[in-house]
Design brief:
It is built from ten helices and 33 strands. The chain starts with 32 loop residues before the first strand and ends with a helix. By secondary structure, the protein is α+β, with helices and mostly antiparallel strands.
């Protein structure tokens, strides 16, 4: 393949296209970036990209500069950044680039700190993020084909990428900014083989105004899937760069070698031991690339925290923790680690003539918070929202809801012992009869039946379902939440008695038939756990006897705010908010037992905490620690095992 297929040359006197920003000044770019037959070329000179992945959505905005300074001090000259589509367009047509979502400001700070940027705008990202970055509302269409040329997907994806071009086009190197390259899609070869789809994404990026080199990345084994020679190719691997680059050369005989994702560690999922990378192997492979002049991006150089409801789930269903520490060189809280120090020392041996590394910036201060009791509670069943009446209840997305919980309620007629059965539950369902727990359904092990006791009088059946992150990888991304049908209630001693049917085809989504039954209709309660719902809670003094799904409220006082790690070991399974910020999910099974709480989210004086616990705490107490607990497993506490 000749270099003309992917080399892009930019003149120093290039004029900025007006389409990028109407109020942007016309300036002469100070630098050029091209792809040559052997090297990346910055201002015409060979340039080895020493890059690290850092996601601004996973770092408090107030800490962006400190984290970027850490990257520079470790020896990097570039940072790689995903854009998570759903982080910026949670509601269709409403884009958010403000505050924590100000991607352009992140790029400008990187440039001020002497770092270039590689942009990865999707539309798909993966990254252990909710739905891989794809908005939940795409799944409202039962026939959509994700990551394809299906107009139902490509039309909103095109709108998204054009919006990205409007906001970040001015930050390209061709316009004086730091963005060197832009990635089309992400590891598409692990999902599909349609080169036309990759071509459509490439053309959409060009139409959006991106005129820097465009590239694609894939693992070794997937480089040929969806391959196009008009996209520069890079390869992803965690070890053995020799094998990775051989695979890359098989599809791209010339051009610079680059590892698009080089893994120093790995992500964590609930119930599984905290992952640690092989530091010796990591350093050996990194030195190989440094010696060979190969470019790389360390994924992650700083993982940070997937705050709130943003963690996704692996395939097959394994929900991701909020801590995204990743055993990265820069810790979750932005600290220097041994891996950082060793990486810095290694890179220092391969600096360009005259290049020096700055000292790492000071770490943010940390503090402990003395244990405090949450003194008020609000039982969920006493604080339900307005219900929707249905003959046949649907999945969560059908009710215009993308996260949180949803409860299905119906009245069962008197009868013998009965079995409640669903085709699937996504992701956990607590089943109650007249307010008393009778069983749990669990997406992890495909537990989809619960025995319902005999009834001598009408009884209220409640099925409370929690969504724990849309799957972010593989074909299971068609991962609609809630009860998935058919859902039946069948007497064990009589003919089957259909109570409801929520039908969904195996390919992820076709609604099935509605059948009229003698059972009363269902009430459906969407419980989004959003700010207005929290504000409407009716608090009561908490008692030691409080149990079951409930909200808890309390306060603590801080003299001088600093970072801390909220100790959640006394709690069961749920979500915690501090001063209105949705901090994290928690689960006593581990491995994560703390939640990183940035000092910039605290106030001098009184601070407010709300905890939503679906199973109830052992003691309603919280505290702040100076260090995180990332690897403490308690499988014996798993609510699913205890309930069933």
């Amino acid at each position: 393949m000749k270099s003309k297929f992917y080399a892009v040359f930019f003149l120093a006197l290039a004029i900025w296209p007006k389409a990028f920003a109407a109020d942007a000044p016309t300036l002469t770019p100070a630098h050029t970036f091209t792809i040559g037959d052997k090297d990346f070329l910055l201002d015409g000179q060979p340039f080895q990209i020493r890059c690290g992945e850092i996601h601004f959505a996973r770092v408090p905005r107030e800490y962006w500069r400190q984290r970027l300074q850490m990257c520079k001090a470790m020896g990097l000259n570039t940072v790689c950044a995903y854009l998570f589509w759903n982080f910026h367009e949670w509601t269709p047509g409403q884009f958010d680039w403000s505050g924590q979502a100000d991607a352009a400001e992140f790029c400008r700070i990187a440039q001020e700190e002497g770092l270039w940027v590689i942009l990865r705008p999707g539309p798909y990202a993966c990254a252990e993020w909710e739905g891989g970055g794809l908005p939940w509302w795409l799944l409202k269409n039962p026939d959509i084909k994700l990551r394809s040329t299906d107009p139902a997907f490509m039309q909103p994806a095109t709108t998204w990428l054009k919006e990205v071009g409007r906001v970040l086009g001015p930050e390209q190197i061709t316009h004086g900014g730091p963005i060197l390259m832009v990635q089309a899609e992400n590891e598409y070869g692990s999902f599909g083989k349609d080169a036309n789809y990759m071509g459509a994404i490439r053309q959409t990026l060009l139409d959006a105004g991106f005129n820097v080199p465009l590239f694609a990345c894939n693992p070794n084994s997937d480089l040929r899937n969806g391959f196009r020679d008009d996209l520069f190719q890079v390869v992803n691997f965690g070890k053995n760069p020799q094998a990775g680059f051989r695979a890359l050369r098989a599809v791209q005989p010339t051009g610079p070698l680059m590892c698009g994702e080089f893994y120093p560690g790995w992500f964590d999922t609930w119930g599984v031991e905290h992952h640690l990378g092989n530091t010796t192997q990591y350093l050996t492979d990194l030195e190989y690339m440094l010696k060979q002049g190969a470019s790389f991006s360390i994924y992650m150089v700083h993982g940070g925290t997937t705050f709130g409801f943003w963690p996704g789930a692996d395939h097959p269903f394994k929900p991701d923790t909020n801590s995204y520490d990743y055993d990265a060189p820069i810790s979750e809280a932005g600290w220097v680690t041994d891996k950082f120090t060793q990486t810095r020392a290694l890179i220092s041996k391969y600096l360009q003539t005259g290049e020096t590394l700055p000292e790492p910036p000071p770490a943010n201060p940390v503090m402990a918070i003395a244990p405090f009791i949450l003194t008020e509670s609000a039982p969920l069943f006493d604080n339900l929202p307005t219900s929707i009446v249905e003959t046949v209840p649907q999945n969560m997305e059908a009710y215009n809801q993308g996260r949180g919980c949803i409860m299905y309620r119906t009245v069962l007629l008197p009868g013998a012992e009965t079995t409640l059965k669903a085709a699937a539950v996504r992701d956990f369902a607590w089943v109650f009869l007249d307010g008393k727990p009778i069983g749990v359904m669990d997406n992890r092990n495909h537990t989809t039946t619960v025995t319902i006791p005999a009834r001598t009088a009408p009884a209220t059946l409640d099925v409370l379902v929690e969504a724990l992150g849309h799957v972010n990888y593989g074909q299971e991304m068609y991962n609609r939440k809630g009860l998935i049908g058919p859902v039946t209630i069948a007497d064990t001693a009589a003919a089957p008695e259909l109570s409801a049917m929520v039908a969904e085809a195996a390919n992820g989504g076709h609604p099935g038939p509605s059948l009229r039954t003698q059972q009363p209709p269902w009430q459906v309660f969407p419980i989004g756990l959003e700010t207005p719902e929290l504000a409407a809670l009716q608090w009561k003094p908490a008692t030691a006897a409080a149990a079951g799904p409930a909200f808890w409220h309390g306060t603590f006082t801080v003299d001088k705010p600093a970072d801390t790690f909220l100790d959640l070991r006394q709690w069961g399974h749920g979500v915690v908010w501090v001063n209105g910020n949705c901090l994290a999910r928690f689960w006593d099974i581990g491995p994560t037992q703390t939640a990183y709480l940035p000092g910039v989210w605290l106030h001098s004086g009184k601070n407010e905490v709300i905890v939503f616990d679906l199973v109830g705490p052992r003691t309603p107490v919280l505290a702040g620690l100076e260090k995180p607990i990332l690897n403490e497993l308690h499988p014996e506490l798993d609510f699913s095992k205890k309930a069933n």
